[in-house]
Design brief:
This protein has 241 residues and is an alpha+beta fold. The protein folds into 2 domains: 5-150, Nucleoside diphosphate kinase-like domain (Alpha-Beta Plaits); 161-240, no CATH class. It is 29% helix and 27% strand. The chain has a 4-stranded antiparallel sheet. A 4-stranded mixed sheet has the order 5-6-7-8, covered by helices on one side. Strand 7 and strand 8 (229-240) form a beta hairpin.
Length: 241
């Protein structure tokens, strides 16, 4: 699904200095993105922040970043493209533009980072990280790596999975690949030949199981897209009790 719907998602994080502005920031991001998942960390641990900024480990400002965030409150998000939004370039590029320049002093009015009164030059002179309110990923690869740090359990997009995580769905997801629950479902359904290579999963709903002796029969309704046509059908898979 490299070029599919899973690529239209981004990891986003409100840093400690942005928590007091969370309501305003969320209002701004929801003009371009749906919130698939969010999770608050009252005291984010050192290991998560070190993993998030591991690509900067050998840079002079790395210790500043760590000190800026470790042991302080943050809020992590996974965002998706809005079907009703009108993008100038595209979801990812438009969202990066909305966040604004890394240096708040250079951020354009109306961007998230323009809400900060800090400046990169000032932070460097004071030997600290710039307080620019938020962090965002810029690609599918970054999103998969960064979201997994804060959402170690798989993420459920309720617009694609009806009724939450059922018995068969959870079993399939354990075998599947990806950080998104429905992405794991899709890869596992293919593995069990319950989804053809040219079908795209657009909706999944677990049904009550049937039991036969020492086995249980998991059941679900899958809605798929194939060659421009949408169809729904029941799929079943047998498991040991």
């Amino acid at each position: 699904m490299k070029n599919g719907s899973y690529s239209k998602r981004l990891f986003f994080m409100i840093k400690p200095d942005g928590i007091s502005l969370e309501a305003k920031i969320r209002e701004m991001i929801e003009t371009l993105a749906n919130v698939i998942a969010s999770r608050s960390f009252d005291l984010v641990d050192l290991e998560k922040i070190e993993r998030l900024y591991s690509m900067h480990k050998n840079k002079f400002f790395y210790p500043y970043l760590i000190d800026y965030i470790k042991g302080k409150p943050i809020k992590a998000y996974v965002l998706s493209e809005r079907e009703d939004a009108r993008y100038q370039i595209g979801f990812i590029d438009d969202f990066i533009e909305l966040v604004g320049d890394t240096d708040p002093a250079k951020a354009k009015p109306g961007t998230i980072r323009s809400l900060s009164t800090d400046a990169l030059e000032k932070s460097l002179s004071e030997k600290r990280a710039v307080r620019n309110l938020v962090h965002r990923s810029t690609s599918r690869e970054e999103t998969e790596r960064e979201a997994a740090i804060f959402f170690w359990d798989c993420i459920l997009d309720r617009s694609k999975v009806e009724g939450g995580k059922g018995e068969l769905g959870k079993s399939l997801a354990r075998e599947g690949k990806g950080i998104f629950y429905e992405e794991r479902l899709e890869s596992s359904l293919r593995k069990h030949n319950l989804l053809s290579p040219d079908e795209k999963l657009i909706n999944y709903r677990d049904l009550e199981r049937r039991e036969k002796g020492y086995f249980k029969m998991g059941r679900a309704i899958v809605k798929t897209l194939k060659n421009g046509s949408i169809a729904a059908r029941e799929v079943t898979l047998q498991f040991n009790v």
